[in-house]
Every structure is written in structure tokens, then in C-alpha cells.
Design a protein that fits this description.
Blueprint lengths: L1 H12 L5 H8 L3 E5 L3 E6 L4 E8 L4 H14 L7 H5 L3 H9 L9 H16 L2 E8 L2 E6 L4
Antiparallel strand pairs: 1-2, 2-3, 3-4, 4-5
């Protein structure tokens, strides 16, 4: 009970994670941008990427939460294995913020639920990007 209270208090103190938290967790493999009409986060650990895009000039905070939840609970990149086994405290903050929508007790299941909820609420698009013979190929991902 005390642990849940602490997580809720942490969640209340930090309404959304900062891009610096994503950069701290993933280093140069992550790119976070707020553009005029959309926000974009890309995770590119090698010559392939996962790309998340949310419409709107103020969509970056929700997209950052989505990216963290997706990378922790859904993504299958081998590079994320250690992160998924030992998540940063920021993951707990994001999960606590969305506890009302996703009450799963297992953290990865909760993260997957949070990612789905944010995807629907903020109309987030997910795609995979790879580079074939110098050309960028982007393929939408169906994540429901």
C-alpha cells in the first residue's frame, strides 16, 4: 500500500516524462522532436527504427509516455532486454500516472495497456523504419 502511494505521489509530481529521461535511458538511439503540427519519437538502435508520431503542437508529453511504455511493454528489440528486465524508475512513474486506465499488476502487461490507451487517446501512429540500399522504407505497424 505504501509503495502504491509513493508511486501515485511521484506520478502527480511529474505529469509527463521529459525528453531528457528518454535520452538518459536510451542515449543516442532515441530522437525526440516537437514540430509545428506533430511530435515524433524514433528509437533507432541500429539501421532499423521504431517511429512514433502524434498529431498536434502539444502532443510531445503524451508521446514520450507512449514511447517509454511501448519500448518497455511491447517492443521486441533485443537491445531492450536489459531495460525490460530492470526498468528505470521513470517507467514506474508513467505506469502510476495511468493506473486508472490500466490496473494490471505485472509491469510489462500494464505498460502494454498504457501504450494502447495512449495510442487511442492521442491518435499515435507506429511504424518500423529500415534502410534498404540507401532508401528509407517505412511500414505502418498495427498495434491495437
Amino acid at each position: 500500500m505504501k509503495r502504491m502511494l509513493v508511486l501515485c505521489l511521484i506520478g502527480a509530481a511529474f505529469p509527463a516524462i521529459a525528453s531528457s529521461e528518454l535520452e538518459k535511458a536510451f542515449g543516442p538511439a532515441i530522437s525526440v522532436k516537437q514540430q509545428k503540427s506533430r511530435a515524433v519519437v524514433e528509437y533507432c538502435p541500429d539501421n532499423t527504427c521504431e517511429r512514433y508520431v502524434a498529431p498536434g503542437s502539444r502532443s510531445l508529453p503524451a508521446l514520450q509516455d507512449f514511447a517509454l511504455a511501448y519500448l518497455f511493454g511491447v517492443s521486441e528489440y533485443y537491445y531492450l532486454k536489459q531495460f525490460q528486465e530492470s526498468p528505470s524508475p521513470t517507467v514506474a512513474v508513467v505506469l502510476a500516472q495511468h493506473r486508472s486506465e490500466c490496473a494490471q499488476s505485472e509491469p510489462r502487461a500494464a505498460a502494454s495497456c498504457v501504450a494502447r490507451a495512449l495510442l487511442k487517446q492521442h491518435h499515435i501512429k507506429v511504424s518500423r523504419v529500415r534502410y534498404d540500399e540507401g532508401a528509407r522504407v517505412e511500414t505502418p505497424v498495427e498495434f491495437k
